[in-house]
Prior knowledge:
CATH superfamily: GSPII I/J protein-like
Number of strands: 4
Shape: rod-shaped
CATH class: Alpha Beta
Strand order of the largest sheet: 1-2-3-4
Order of helices and strands: HHEEEE
Number of helices: 2
Number of domains: 1
Strand content: 15-25%
Largest sheet: 4 strands, antiparallel
Helix content: 25-40%
Amino acid sequence: MSIxxxxxxxxxxxxxxxVEARDCSGRAGESGFTLIEAIIALLLMLIVALxxxxxxxxxxxxxxxxxDRATSLAIAQQALEGLRSAQFNATTTDPSLVGGTTVQTxxxxxxxFQMTRIIDDLPATSVxxxxxTTNLKGITVAVVPQSIGRGWAFGAGGTVTLFTxxxxxxx
Length: 171
């Protein structure tokens, strides 16, 4: 075969379009993420992650406040039941039912609460009175959590107050 016949054969070869520059993957027209696109995607993921982290912090804080309120309620109910079961009749008045205000610190599971018991011998008046001859006592038990920070469950927002009246059992 001569060189002339070889050249004629190559003239018949049909090329299917121009040769394109290829990237290192060997595929034409495809490209990966640029550095800027990757940084923008990372920033978006960071914003979403920080948003969910703040939600976790908020929920932990509110669950802790709710737990303190539930414990405050349990302390107040226990104190009130103790005062309800105390003797109060014509001959005997339990010392826990003597009129006045008592402030006590209660620690439950490492959390500190302040319990205030007010025994009012004349509940019809606006201020607590002490009168040993009374037939009716107003009992107020207020519990305030002391171990929490500022927020919805602190101070007046976290105070649990129970009120009842107790009459002598011999009447």
